[in-house]
TrEMBL record:
Residues 8-90 form the Methyltransferase type domain. Pfam families: Methyltransf_11 (PF08241). This is Methyltransferase type 11 domain-containing protein. It comes from the Eukaryota. It comes from Diabrotica balteata (Banded cucumber beetle). PANTHER family: TRANS-ACONITATE 2-METHYLTRANSFERASE, TRANS-ACONITATE 2-METHYLTRANSFERASE-RELATED. Signal peptide: none annotated. InterPro entries: Methyltransf_11, SAM-dependent_MTases_sf. The lineage of its organism: Eukaryota, Metazoa, Ecdysozoa, Arthropoda, Hexapoda. GO terms for molecular function: S-adenosylmethionine-dependent methyltransferase activity.
Length: 222
């Protein structure tokens, strides 16, 4: 949210920060100090978006989130409906999640297949063209004016410790793994990620870089 601050007008009526996670909202409340901000727990892919948010917003911003939403087509419809006519949204969406390959591979190992993958890999992991899928989502939601650009990102994360924390944080399956199996699962999961093309490692793992493609979407509701 801080990265938005320089771009916000001096006076605005309200800034609404939405997230599905109570813990994330609590963290944001305690660490972010933007004027006129309200924190709202909300599943952006829900079929029951509160009426108060329909046609409410002049601008919607979302960074690194939409590809995590299971009901992604509903999410795009909600974004469209939440914008006022004349409003604009700006999204960054990852083509694939960094851990998709690991989730896919682990789901083929008999010991781990029981924990599933369908709700874990990002929506278009099995699509030949995620970009075309996002364009279709925009069109189906009602957007007629939009731009979608692709950017390749190489981002240096730091060392082994930071890398492991990131990998653990992006795995929503962990709470479902039994206590007896948790350490073995984590080991297998990290090993799969070590082999994946999402990351590259220097000799002693003190410099780990992540690689991914991102879609940058700007869309106007007319
Ligand atoms: C990778 S974080 C990005 C957070 C923030 N935008 C940033 O750039 O630092 C993704 C966020 O999306 C939230 N999220 C995932 N699914 C969601 C959903 N269905 N509705 C709302 N938020 C969701 C997660 O709780 C998490 O806080």
């Amino acid at each position: 949210m801080y990265c938005l601050q320089p771009f916000l007008p001096n006076h605005y009526k309200e800034f609404v920060a939405m997230d599905i996670s109570e813990a994330m909202l609590e963290y944001a409340k305690n660490n972010i100090n933007l004027p006129n901000t309200r924190f709202v727990e909300c599943d952006v892919g829900s079929k029951d978006i509160d009426d108060e948010f329909i046609e409410k917003f002049d601008h919607i911003f979302s960074f690194y989130c939409i590809h995590m939403i299971e009901n992604i087509s509903q999410a795009f419809k909600n974004l469209y409906n939440m914008l006022k006519p004349g409003g604009q949204m700006f999204l960054t969406v990852m083509e694939y999640s960094l851990a998709d390959v690991a989730f896919h591979k682990l789901s083929k190992i008999p010991r781990w297949e029981k924990y599933g993958k369908q709700t874990t890999v990002s929506p278009f992991y099995y699509s030949e063209s995620p970009k075309e899928e996002y364009i279709k989502l925009l069109q189906d939601a009602g957007f007629k004016h939009y731009v979608l650009e692709t950017e390749s990102i190489d981002f240096e994360l730091g060392g082994e410790d930071v890398w492991q924390k990131l990998c653990i944080a992006i795995n929503p399956l962990l709470p479902k793994i039994s206590a007896e199996e948790l350490e073995d699962y984590k080991l297998d999961y990290l090993n799969q990620l070590r082999k994946s093309r999402s990351f590259s490692f220097n000799n002693n793992n003190s410099r780990i870089t992540t690689h991914f493609k991102m879609f940058i979407i700007v869309a106007n509701k007319i």
